[in-house]
Amino acid sequence: MDVRKTGIWSPELRLHHDPVEIHEAAAELDQQGWGTLWIPGLGGGDILGDAERLLRATENTVVAAGVLSIWRHPAPEMAAGHARLVREYGHRMLLGLGVSDATAARDAGGTYRPLAALGGYLDVLDAAKDPVPAEERLIAAMGPKLTALAGRRSAGTHPFLVTPEFTADARALLGTGPLLAPYQAVVVDTDPTRARATARGFLAPFIGMGHYASSLLRQGFTEEDLADGGSDHLIDAVVAWGDIDTIGKRVKAHHDAGATHVALHAISRGKGLPLTDWRHLAPLAA
After folding, report:
1. What is the predicted pLDDT for the residue at 211?
2. What single string gives the DSSP state of each residue in 170-223?
3. Is residue 1 part of a domain?
4. What is the DSSP string of 17-62?
5. pLDDT per residue over 4-24, tens digit each?
6. What are phi and psi for residue 47, nearest 5 degrees?
7. CA of 68: how far to CAs of 137, 199, 275, in Å?
């Protein structure tokens, strides 16, 4: 599956109130040349139905669930749904899988043992009537053990809130073959104060979550960096803000560090689909 070098990651492509506008936006992103459209799990819901809307609107782009929680989406349903989408739209559907956190596991009546739980989930995908091929699934891995599992049993990894230095370390763990597709938040704004405030508006809740906080601490940030929605140092490290050239340099830094693909999330102060930002970022689709 060719995800190409860059893609668009967007909660709006699931959440926006007007499905016609989502369809038109996805078609425009496809025409701009983005390799993949990523939609997040958002705590559940009909993620395959939302993916199908994007597949229907596009001709070339891959559509990726980035990512669905294994605790909220039963593996047999995902295998059957993935198979149906492949039959109808070709091999353009990538299942991203995440282990979420202990609360999600507890709410689902499970025990939070990430490696064992994810391994069992992959076993069910493998044993399904229509198995999900390893090359059409990937794992949201931020720690070394999950990264190694991703390299063995999936196309690769889709890490969240990471730096190019993390990308380099992940590539060293994965070796040369597997897909490495980091999420990269971007703010198209050259004003430092405003850009950082925009970034915090979206990222502050994630920075406070235990599993993401642990990942950031492993990357070398401090408890002080994680306080109050993230220090300027942390925000500048995990968010690319500025003009198109500045953002492009961050994308290049990930690629130089070993990324196969970079998923760009345009964080905007406005409501609705960030069409203006996507059009501004369009040169990076190439």
Report:
1. 86
2. HHHHH-SSSEE--EEEEEE---HHHHHHHHHHHHHHHHTSHHHHHHHHHTT--H
3. no
4. S-HHHHHHHHHHHHHHT-SEEEE--TTSS-HHHHHHHHHHH-SS-E
5. 999 999 999 999 999 999 999
6. -70, -35
7. 11, 23, 25
Please list, residue by residue across 39-53, b when 16 or more beta carbons sit within 10 angstroms of its beta carbon and e when fewer do.
Answer: bbbeeeeebbebbbb
Helix (H) or strand (E) holding 65: strand 62-69
pTM for the complete prediction? 0.95
Position 97 pLDDT exceeds 90 = yes
Q: Tell me: pLDDT of 171 over 90.
A: yes
Can you give the pLDDT at residue 43? Answer: 84
Q: Is residue 177 part of a domain?
A: yes
- Is 73 a member of any domain? yes
The total of other beta-carbon atoms located within 10 Å of residue 32's CB is 17
| Residue-range definition of the domain harbouring residue 260 | 6-285
Contacts of 159 (CB under 8 A, 6+ apart): 140, 141, 142, 166, 167, 170, 182, 183, 215
Our count of domains for the chain comes to: 1
Residues 6 or more apart whose Cβ sits within 8 Å of residue 218: 142, 143
Tokens read off for 156: 């690769």
pLDDT at 88: 97
Contact, 126 vs 188, CB < 8 A? no
The pLDDT tens digits of the residues spanning 175-217 come to 999 999 999 999 999 999 999 999 999 999 999 888 899 999 9
Give the SS3 label for residue 109. coil
Residue 103 located in a structural domain: yes
pLDDT computed for residue 109 by the predictor = 81
pLDDT at residue 187 in the model: 98
Exposed, middle or buried: residue 102 (CB in 10 Å: 0-12, 13-18, 19+)? middle
- Read off the CATH number of the domain in which 152 is found: 3.20.20.30
